[in-house]
Amino acid sequence: AQTVTQSQPEMSVQEAETVTLSCTYDTSESDYYLFWYKQPPSRQMILVIRQEAYKQQNATENRFSVNFQKAAKSFSLKISDSQLGDAAMYFCAYARGSNYKLTFGKGTLLTVNP
Amino acid sequence: NAGVMQNPRHLVRRRGQEARLRCSPMKGHSHVYWYRQLPEEGLKFMVYLQKENIIDESGMPKERFSAEFPKEGPSILRIQQVVRGDSAAYFCASSPYTGLDTEAFFGQGTRLTVV
């Protein structure tokens, strides 16, 4: 079975600085997708970024980028120029074959200090 | 286009009562998924439904839990004879199809508290 591990229960960053959230996963498959979701206090799950495993180029969405290391099964999220609105719980997730059966990590709570 | 709507946002039930959680998918979405988030855990898949059909219920507890997505109206997650361990946030998501190239949109969840 696939597992997703987020080893940092909590992280903090100063406003305007850069922070990296870690995620490792375990799978025997070669074709899959990886995701980062943001869950603010409103509890809404918001997709931040996704990466297709067969694409070597790291995905980027504005201030959010990933470092995807397929051999190491590592998928970290970098947030540049952190803003107060980035404060949230961040979940790493894995899926294969379809978009509905996501396997989530336990999350990292990000605090942004003014 | 309204997002995925879940109600109620908060639900309190006494042990032994029934809980009914409702989910209206986004307009044009015929695929609905339910997830459960226990305290300090990530979301865990429960069930995938299309209109009038359960496609995958591999994450659903075998007893007391059921789900439906009727031809008309919202999807319902039903928990009978609730116990304290059912206290969790229950999320619904929907998408137009299940390809990984499309996003599943989540609702804001229903927080169930069993007292």
Number of helical stretches of at least 4 residues of chain B = 0
Uncertain segments of chain A? none
Q: Average pLDDT across residues of chain A?
A: 94
Secondary structure class of chain A reads: mainly beta
Order of helix and strand elements from N to C terminus of chain B: EEEEEEEEEEE
Residues in helices of chain B, as a percent range: under 10%
* Strand tally of chain B: 11
- Given as residue ranges, the uncertain stretches of chain B (5+ residues, pLDDT < 50) are none
Largest β sheet strand count, sense and barrel closure of chain B: 7 strands, mixed
SS summary, helix count of chain A: 0
Largest interface, with Cβ-Cβ < 8 Å? A-B, 24 and 26 residues
Helix content range of the residues of chain A, please? under 10%
Q: Can you write the helix and strand succession of chain A as a string?
A: EEEEEEEEEEEE
Rg from alpha-carbon coordinates of chain B: 13 Å
What distance separates the N and C termini of chain A? 41 Å
Fraction of residues in β-strands of chain B: over 45%
Shape field of chain A = globular
What percent of residues of chain A are in strands?
Answer: over 45%
User: Span from first to last CA of chain B?
Assistant: 36 Å
The profile of the biggest β sheet of chain A is: 6 strands, mixed
- Mean pLDDT across every amino acid position of chain B: 94
